[in-house]
Specification:
Number of strands: 5
CATH topology: Leucine-rich repeat, LRR (right-handed beta-alpha superhelix)
Largest sheet: 3 strands, parallel
Radius of gyration: 12 Å
Number of domains: 1
Order of helices and strands: HEEEEE
Number of helices: 1
CATH class: Alpha Beta
Strand order of the largest sheet: 1-2-4
CATH superfamily: Ribonuclease Inhibitor
Helix content: under 10%
Structural class: mainly beta
Shape: globular
């Protein structure tokens, strides 16, 4: 179990990345909010990856979703305060 490697965090600079599969890992950190920089992402699989905490609200800003798999994870969806 560990933190998300810095190399994965740097994936957020890949503007044309469409598919990201991080399933079945043993991370013990939160999902980086910088994933919202992946504007062309259509598929994100985080199932059984060990992430914890809140799902960053920034992920909802991605507009090209086809699949988001967060199965087998216990998260709290972050909401903006009104």
């Amino acid at each position: 179990m560990g933190q998300i490697p810095i190399e994965i965090s740097s994936l957020t600079s890949l503007q044309n990345l469409q598919i990201l599969n991080l399933a079945d890992n043993k991370f013990s950190s939160e999902i980086p909010s910088r994933f919202n920089n992946l504007k062309n992402l259509t598929y994100l699989n985080l199932s059984n990856a060990g992430f914890m905490g809140q799902i960053p609200i920034e992920i909802s800003f991605l507009t090209r979703w086809v699949t988001l798999d967060i199965s087998l994870l216990l998260f709290i969806w972050a909401t903006s305060e009104t």
